[in-house]
Amino acid sequence: MNEILIRANNISKAFGEVKVLNDISFELKKGNVLSILGPSGSGKSTLLRIITQLERADRGSLYFNDKPLFEDDGSKANYSNNKIAREIGLKTGLVFQNFNLFPHFTVLRNITEAQIAVLKRDKHEAEDRAIALLKKLSLLDKAKAYPSQLSGGQKQRVSIARALAMDPEVLFFDEPTSALDPELTREVLNVIKQLSEEKMTMAVVTHEMEFAKAISDHAIFMEGGYIIEEGDKDSIFTAAEKERTRQFIHSMSN
C-alpha cells in the first residue's frame, strides 16, 4: 500500500473578505497523480501556492510524510519553524503556467542556478544533472539558448527540467499548458505523462480532461473554494455523483 506523502486537513484561506479556500482536505500517496479540476476562480492555484509555501493558510493543517508544515491550533494555522519549512520546501517543486524562467540566463543556467544556490551542488555536478534532464526532455540542443529563443512548449519543458533538477518528492503543475497552442500543449503533456509512468508523485491543475483521465489515480473537483467531489479517476471522469462535476467535465471535454 502506497504511503501518504501529503495530507491536507481543513485548509482555509481568505484574501480580505473573500474566502478562496474552505475546509479543503485530501491525501496524495507516493507514486500517485492527483488531478485538481474546477473552473477559474475555484481556488486551485491558491491551494498549490499554500502547499509550496508561496502563500500562508489561515486555518487547517498540512503534513508531508507526517511532518507538519502547519497545524491548526484551534484558532489559526500555526506554522512550523523555518528549518522544518525549508526541509519540506525542498521536497516540493512547482511548475508555473507562465514558465517563470530567468530571461537573462541560458537554459543551462536556468536549470543549474538553484541547484548551486539552494542544494549547494558544485557547478560540475549541477551541469551534469541539467544536461541529463535536457537530454531526457529532448532539449539538449537548447542548452546555450536563452528563453526568448524558445517556443512556449520548449520554455515549459525547461521549467519542468528546472523543477526536476531539485529532486523533489512531489511535483505540482499549475495549468502547465494554459499559455500554449494545441501542438505545443501535446509536447508538455507527453512529458508529464512520461513522469507519471515513472511513478513521479504529482498534483496537476488542468483543464485537459482526457489527459487528466489518462494519467490520474485520483481527482478532486473544486468550485467556489470548496471540494465538491473527489474520488478515483473512474468515479470522477466517468461516473461522477454530482451534477455540477458532470457538467464541468462534459463542457471541458468538448
Q: Name the average pLDDT.
A: 92
Beta fraction of the residues? Answer: 25-35%
- Main sheet: which strands, in order across? 7-8-9-3-10-11
- Poorly predicted runs are none
* Envelope shape: globular
- What is the multimeric organization of the chains shown? single chain
Secondary-structure content class: alpha/beta
C-alpha Rg (nearest Å): 18 Å
Number of distinct beta strands: 11
The largest pleated sheet is described as: 6 strands, mixed
Summarize the structure.
The protein has 254 residues and is an alpha/beta fold. It contains 9 helices and 11 strands.
Describe the structure.
- This protein has 254 residues and is of the alpha/beta class.
- Helices cover 37% and strands 28% of the residues.
- It has helices spanning 44-51, 82-89, 107-117, 123-136, 152-164, 182-197, 209-215, 233-237, 243-253; strands at 4-15, 18-29, 33-37, 59-64, 67-72, 77-79, 92-95, 170-174, 201-205, 218-223, 226-232.
- The protein is globular.
- It starts with a strand and ends with a helix.
- Residues 109-136 form a coiled coil.
- It is a peripheral membrane protein.
- It holds the Pfam family ABC_tran.
- Belongs to the ABC transporter superfamily.
How are the secondary structure elements laid out?
Blueprint: E1 4-15, E2 18-29, E3 33-37, H1 44-51, E4 59-64, E5 67-72, E6 77-79, H2 82-89, E7 92-95, H3 107-117, H4 123-136, H5 152-164, E8 170-174, H6 182-197, E9 201-205, H7 209-215, E10 218-223, E11 226-232, H8 233-237, H9 243-253
Parallel strand pairs: 3-9, 3-10, 7-8, 8-9
Antiparallel strand pairs: 1-2, 1-4, 4-5, 5-6, 10-11
Subcellular location: Cell membrane
Keywords: Amino-acid transport, ATP-binding, Cell membrane, Coiled coil, Membrane, Nucleotide-binding, Transport
Membrane topology: Peripheral membrane protein
